Amino acid sequence: MTQRLNAMQQSPELFKKLVDFSLAAKKGSLDVGLLHLIEIRASQINGCALCLDMHIKQAKLHGERELRLHHLAIWRESPLFSERERAALAWTEALTTLPPHGVADADYDAARAAFSEQELVQLTHNVMGINAWNRLNVAFRTEPGSADKAYGLDKASFS
Predict the structure, then answer these.
(1) What gap in Å lies between CA 126 and CA 132, rounded to an integer?
(2) In order of start, what are the domains of the chain with their CATH numbers?
(3) What is the model's pTM?
(4) Quick one: which of 128, 131, 137, 127 has its CA closest to 49?
């Protein structure tokens, strides 16, 4: 496999701006657990190994149940997610895949019913952020687990 660049080393100023954007997007009233779910779901769709690994560990450290993590790929069929979580996951999928016809009215209506205007904008910014990270890490094949120690994720206990 071809060795890829380290994006952070090559462009630390842009990397920091993306970190700053992501941290700013998380400030608001949305529950951190919900944000973990959307980060994991977008990372599943985009095939981002680093982000999927990282956000699953973060979710577990924040108390997310393992069965819900396993069911996230099948959230539409699973009874383990609330209507609000379902609306957020549908919104995440719509913005991550961006269908040719755009975001369906049904997805928008469900999101508007579940979230205030401010929350929906915050949710959208968080989906934008994880998609940016996914694209960066997929492009350069950042190794899963490579930042565990720096982010305290080595404390997540998975066997």
Answers:
(1) 10
(2) 15-142 (1.20.1290.10)
(3) 0.92
(4) 137
